[in-house]
């Protein structure tokens, strides 16, 4: 059992561990089923994340008291002592040696946990992967780790270390292996993907090399920091012959300049807006999404109103909304005033989430009746769901045979809550 908490990068690393375990002959079961081995891949982005990790660890041990229990990842890196205090944990591995967990799992249970927590290296890295397990879903491809940006609310540069990239050939090798396994869409993941740089190759070189892999139909970038997107990347998104999809998740965090400065973000609102206008001008049908954090220390009611106004005015299709959560070790914790009460943070979250639903609806409405390409996923609720190239969730009816992992051209129809009905016009691949 490999259980994941947190971000897409953790999901990608967990999948790699599952593949390696399966390749070594293990039967990998979901969280909640009896298991002899549990690997819990943790997150430490907020205090609540820490607490969820502790709950999952305790739950696994209570259900599987004889199982070898390993805890890996960001919370292992930052909260080693707290995890070591949970009875039944056998191994704690920080982020540097995350994959070394597999070298320890055949040992018996320990009276006290073994702790492997090294300083995180600055060097670029390789990851070994296995190629003999069929996989017919969209898959994550880890290309980068760590971040040097030091936003004042963020613990990630401490938990995952400084920015470094996956070695070029090793990255492409996994992409080719993924395609040989039946994967048609890859989502590029990392902490700060736009800073990818290995042996002279940047993010644009990487998407171009992925475009040259026969059978790889779609490449999506999960999220990318606003100041790191080269204009050439937009041109690749705009090119219908390129497999890079027209999707840009560009974290804004706040629409107010004073708050952006307090957050130590690397752009002003004017710079962000100018970039977005350029992106919309260059990429037809672009889906622009973002992350916004509300209730940050020092965010006044007027700052929040400004964020709502900017969110409504800019051509966003949606935002993910997060309430600010205090995190020991981050720069903002040095402040003594300006804390926004929790109830106010949650009020701001609710308001902005409502605005996001409205904008998502508007984005879908603007596409009703249009054609789109969709890679279909596993059947659900009587149909086959999928995402359009520009990230609208759709579902086509079940034709009575298996059409998962097929690329189809559809016509978009009615809006249903946060997804759209779609009718298949053509099977492409
Ligand atoms: S860019 Fe800022 S928010 Fe994102 S990981 Fe780096 S420090 Fe954290």
Automatic annotation (TrEMBL):
This is tRNA (N(6)-L-threonylcarbamoyladenosine(37)-C(2))-methylthiotransferase MtaB. The gene is mtaB. PANTHER family: RADICAL SAM PROTEINS, THREONYLCARBAMOYLADENOSINE TRNA METHYLTHIOTRANSFERASE. It holds the Pfam family Radical_SAM. Keywords: 4Fe-4S, Cytoplasm, Iron, Iron-sulfur, Metal-binding, S-adenosyl-L-methionine, Transferase, tRNA processing. Residues 1-110 form the MTTase N-terminal domain. PROSITE patterns: MTTASE_N, MTTASE_RADICAL, RADICAL_SAM. NCBIfam families: MiaB-like-C, MiaB/RimO family radical SAM methylthiotransferase. It comes from the Bacteria. One of its GO terms (molecular function) is tRNA (N(6)-L-threonylcarbamoyladenosine(37)-C(2))-methylthiotransferase activity. The keyword rRNA-binding does not apply. Residues 133-362 form the Radical SAM core domain. Coiled coil: none annotated. Its cofactor is [4Fe-4S] cluster. The keyword Transferase applies.
């Amino acid at each position: 059992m490999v259980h994941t908490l947190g971000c897409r990068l953790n999901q990608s690393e967990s999948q790699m561990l599952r593949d390696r375990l399966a390749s070594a002959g293990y039967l990998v079961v979901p969280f909640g089923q009896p298991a002899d081995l549990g690997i819990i891949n943790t997150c430490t982005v907020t205090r609540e994340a820490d607490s969820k990790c502790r709950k999952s660890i305790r739950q696994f041990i209570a259900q599987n008291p004889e199982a070898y229990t390993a805890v890996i990842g960001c919370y292992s890196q930052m909260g080693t002592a707290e995890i070591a205090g949970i009875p039944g944990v056998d191994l704690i591995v920080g982020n540097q040696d995350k994959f070394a967990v597999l070298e320890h799992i055949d040992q018996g249970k320990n009276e006290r946990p073994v702790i492997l927590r090294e300083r995180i290296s600055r060097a670029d890295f390789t990851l070994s992967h296995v190629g003999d397990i069929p996989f017919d879903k969209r898959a994550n491809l880890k290309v980068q780790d760590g971040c040097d940006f030091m936003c004042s609310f963020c613990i990630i540069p401490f938990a995952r270390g400084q920015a470094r990239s996956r070695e070029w050939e090793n990255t492409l090798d996994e992409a080719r292996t993924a395609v040989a396994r039946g994967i048609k869409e890859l989502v590029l993941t990392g902490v700060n993907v736009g800073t990818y740089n290995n042996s002279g190759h940047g993010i644009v070189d990487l998407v171009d090399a992925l475009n040259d892999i026969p059978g790889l139909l779609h490449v999506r970038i999960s999220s990318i920091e606003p100041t790191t997107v080269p204009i050439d990347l937009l041109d690749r998104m705009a090119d219908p012959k390129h497999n890079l999809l027209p999707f840009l998740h560009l974290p804004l965090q706040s629409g107010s300049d004073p708050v952006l400065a307090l957050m130590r973000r690397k752009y002003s609102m004017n710079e962000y807006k100018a970039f977005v206008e350029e992106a919309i001008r260059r990429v037809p049908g672009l889906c622009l999404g973002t992350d916004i954090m509300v209730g940050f220390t020092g965010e006044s009611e007027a700052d929040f109103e400004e964020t709502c106004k900017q969110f409504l005015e800019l051509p966003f299709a949606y935002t993910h909304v997060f309430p600010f959560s205090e995190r020991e070790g981050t720069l903002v914790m040095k402040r003594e005033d300006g804390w926004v009460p929790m109830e106010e943070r949650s009020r701001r979250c609710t308001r902005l989430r409502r605005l996001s639903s409205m904008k998502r609806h508007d984005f879908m409405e603007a596409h009703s009746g249009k054609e789109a390409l969709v890679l279909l996923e596993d059947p659900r609720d009587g149909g086959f769901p999928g995402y359009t190239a520009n990230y609208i969730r759709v579902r086509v009816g079940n034709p009575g045979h298996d059409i998962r992992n097929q690329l189809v051209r559809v016509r978009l129809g009615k809006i249903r809550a946060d997804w759209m009905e779609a009718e298949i016009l053509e099977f492409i691949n």
